[in-house]
Amino acid sequence: MAKGRILLAHGNVDCQTIYGSALVHDGYVVDIVVDVESALRNLASSPYDLVVADLYLRSRGDECLIRQLRHLPHAAHLPIVVLTGWTTEAHRRVAMDENADDFLALPIRPRELVATVASLIDQQRAPTRTPSASATDEDGSIMKEI
């Protein structure tokens, strides 16, 4: 059984091969696209657990996929890992301002991407914890979990 389904949106063939293979080897199903429009089509037609995307992709319009994803109801919740050669602090800020979950500057070891993906998917799947009825102070107020 697959660990999850990943959309890898990257225009660089070497990145597609290296990082796509590493994710597949670790048990993920990986779909690869090279432009914004293809990514949006895939996201509209298939469920994904996470998106790995370059900061900028070929596009007929806005080349920043993550900016567009955060405005789509069916994809706004997806964890997004930016995997990019755009490595300045300004580029990192763009990714974080667009609510990327992580920013990985190339080159990185494939295992680093796999570990990041696994961690984000685990966080996404973890049940949200709510205080139980037994977690109250003597005065009846709910205790904060540390």
Quick summary of this structure?
With 146 residues, this protein is of the alpha/beta class. The chain has five helices and five strands; from the N terminus they run E-H-E-H-E-H-E-H-E-H.
Layout of SSEs?
Blueprint (H helix, E strand, L loop, with lengths): L3 E6 L3 H13 L2 E6 L2 H10 L4 E4 L11 H5 L10 E5 L4 H9 L4 E4 L4 H16 L21
Parallel strand pairs: 1-2, 1-3, 3-4, 4-5
Structure description:
By secondary structure, the protein is an alpha/beta fold. It has one domain (4-125): 3-Layer(aba) Sandwich (Rossmann fold), CATH 3.40.50.2300. The chain is 36% helix and 17% strand. It has helices at residues 13-25, 36-45, 65-69, 89-97, 110-125; strands at 4-9, 28-33, 50-53, 80-84, 102-105. Strand 4 (80-84), helix 4 and strand 5 (102-105) form a beta-alpha-beta unit. Helix 1 (13-25) packs across helix 5 (110-125). The chain is globular and about 35 Å long.
